[in-house]
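S2.1 Query sequence (Triple tyrosine motif-containing protein)
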Amino acid sequence: MRATRFFTLVFQLCLLVVTAAMGQAQHYFFGNPMIRNYKPEEFKGGIQSWGIVQDDRELLYIANNFGLLEFDGATWNLYSPKTGTKVRSVHVGADNRIYVGSQADFGYFLPNAQGTLRYVSLADSLPEKFRNFDEVWRIYAQEGSIYFFTFKNIYVYTPGRKLEVIVPASALEFSFQVNKEIYSLVWSKGLSLLENNSLKLLPGGEFFRDKQIASVLPFDKNRLIVFTIKEGAYLYDGHGVTPFPIDQKLATSGLLINQALLLRDGNFALATQNKGLLLLDTKGRLLLNITLQEGLLDNTVHTIYQDTQDNLWLGMNNGLSMVELSSPFSRLDGTMGLSGTGYAALQKGNLLYLGTNSGLFVSDVSSLSKNFTGVPNSTGQVYHLNQLGNHILMGHHNGPYLVGEGMATLISPEFGAWEFVLVPNQPNKVIMGTYKGISLLSATEKALHYLKKYQGLEESSRVLEFDKDGDLWIAHGYKGLFRVRFDQKGENITWVKFYNSRHGLPSDQLVNMEKIRNELIFPALYGVYRFDKAKDRFVQDQQYSALFLPDEHVIEMEEDVQGTIYFISNQRVGKITFDSFGKPTLQDQLFQNLREQLNDDLSFIQVLDINNVLFGAKEGFIHYNAAKTKKMVPFHTRLAKVFTISNEADSLLLSGRRLGKASNTELPFALNSLRFAYAASFYEKPEKTQFQYFLKNFDTRWSEWTTKTEKEYTNLPEGTYVFQVRARNIYGVLSEAESFAFVVRPPFYRSTGAYFVYTLLGLLLLGATFWQAEKRFRNEKRRILLDKERKLGQKELEIKHITNQSEQEIDRLRNEKFQAELDHKNRELTYSTIHLINKNELLSCVKLELQEILKNGGSVAPQEELKKIIRSIDHNITSDVDWKQFELHFNHVHGDFIHRLQDRFPNLTPQEIKLSTYLRLNLTTKDIAQLLNISVRGVEISRYRLRKRLCLDRSENLTDFMLKF
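Output structure tokens follow.
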């Protein structure tokens, strides 16, 4: 704070008393509430809107000239029942159908398979005689049925039943629903109640038979309040009617009421034809009047609706407006006649002075209009306002001014007055900070006078404060701090000391100074410091520094009478409160919307009283009502639409309720590029709402915060994904994340079936490979076997050849052996034959000798003996035993010659066979004769006979025949 605490505390205590006396009526809004206007060009609808409702998802639905408007906080959608049809009424049913009434038609909207709303007409099912009706102005739900009200008939729709028609006895005016009861004005009869599908005139209801009713609302337990269009308001207690007092200025101003609404705080909001928006309390006092001048699009309000966050939506004659009734912030700007950026403020009684770069403005806050007017002679940059007793001092670019009697008077021509501060213990002296140092002023009850400029300090002195020791501290934003000491009279500077980063401060620049709890503190580039007089250095104040971020620079601080400290830093705006034990708590959530609206040249805070604080803004001032608490109502983030992206055009996949109910949506691989559109159901500065998204199984973390309401993902690989999005509003409140699970199926060539086919083909290919390998193996094996067989054949041939050679050799050897054996046998036979021949020769000789003996004579006995010998020799000579033995060996040697010869020539005699064997042995005739025991002549004869037996030609040699046989 930069003025003396004494005058400020006195002023604030007086202001508290004045505030209490002024009452609620004058302080519902100190300035004008925040208003957000939507022109038809923005929502692409008609200029007029006639009904506004919200569904369970907090989406707004508006009955508009062009159709049904839907707003989710980010995107406007327009749905038309029929081409060119104006929608006059809208109602959200318990079944989530959006019922609408229009010209000669009524029905409802339902989401199709993609979630886009599609209209279903109910009037089309009416018999022809009931189709001729005008516009449906009201829709209400009661006991499971939907009632559509026209000025001619009432149509009752009950799902699953046939449409019913109630035909009143007289024409109807508007209808109303209060506490689940439906009232309607029957023209020329009065206010009636709908019971059992019949309208019954209420007791005393005939009072309204010729009065147009705008709205019927509950007033208390036993009474209703009836607002008429032209004739004011009345209270109805079930029996009679009494007038309800409305502010006399309104009652006599030609007020036309289109609709009234009971607000959640118990006050009444009036949508008027010619006065904009009015707020009345329960006593009929005017709390607020907002018109075109205060920021509405025009002065005609057709319909009014309070949303779940207590914002007031107005259906204007030319657009839509949203009034932030629940906000503790209001604006004092050009809509109240104020021009320029806010720099200074001061309240004196009912007069509020505001200084901007355009000059000084004043308003009587007790008046209804609260408009500001410029103070004469104050044009230009205002820096500071201060009240000293009855005097108001103004620091101005042109110098110091005294404000009073409706104008500003220049005190001194000294150029550039920053600020004023009282000299301690000398209430008649004021020190003024200027562009080029400090000056001294004198104050009396009637006037202020410029005394002198102090010598010894030529620095710009924008921030001034005295410490407890009476030293004046001056903060220079780009150099550091100056400590100034005066003489006892305060007329001259005795010494000046300069402090900067060499004295404990973190830097030379951006050092500020505040007087909090009657002590000086010094917010620096980062951290908050105190001056340690014993060390003549600055030390960090741990309590305050701990409240701020390490790199946070506190620009401005201001304290109220309860010790609450309001602050502005380079990162945020907020306040610091202290509990009963002195523990501080920093609160900035509620103020997060302010930072970008505030004056960033010379930040300014002014505490008017315990409940009213002003912040200098880029356009005028922002007012904070500390007594008006802002409920941080939870809001929701919702996925509005999901599109599939293609080269031709994006295609809507899902939207609305269908999207909200979708789970594990399966997408073909061709639709693996998606665009997600989302919104948040928070309508205070929705363009500042930030979003954060995360695609599970694709993103590694949540995204950075962004104000974009769409996110695209292209060429997602196959897999299971969950897209999540959440929002953060202007107050830093986070919503719960909204999720959409979907599955991108693999392309046909990577599908399960494809993998099955691939597996099958793989198995077939593997089988074919194995078969081919097996075949190749078999062929190779066959080739190897054939090769082996060939080689074996060759080997066998070689072996056979060798074997043949061996066999030949063996045969040769065998033959040689056989021949040797044969020769041996032949030799044996020959030897045997020779032996036989020799034996026979011997025996023949013996025989001859014995015959000779016998012939020559001898005794008889010897003769007998000799005869026996001869007989024995004959027997030996003719014995066949030797022949048998000989035949056996001969057949063995000569290939069974005798048997073959006998087989071929069975007529041969034994003598001829023997002859043949001997011829085979190639014996001589003599030898044969001896063996046959015949003469040589006998052998020749025997050969001759044998030839004949053998039928041999004369040319053939018998011996050769036998050798070859």
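The chain has a mean pLDDT of 87. Residues 752-856 form the longest helix (105 residues).
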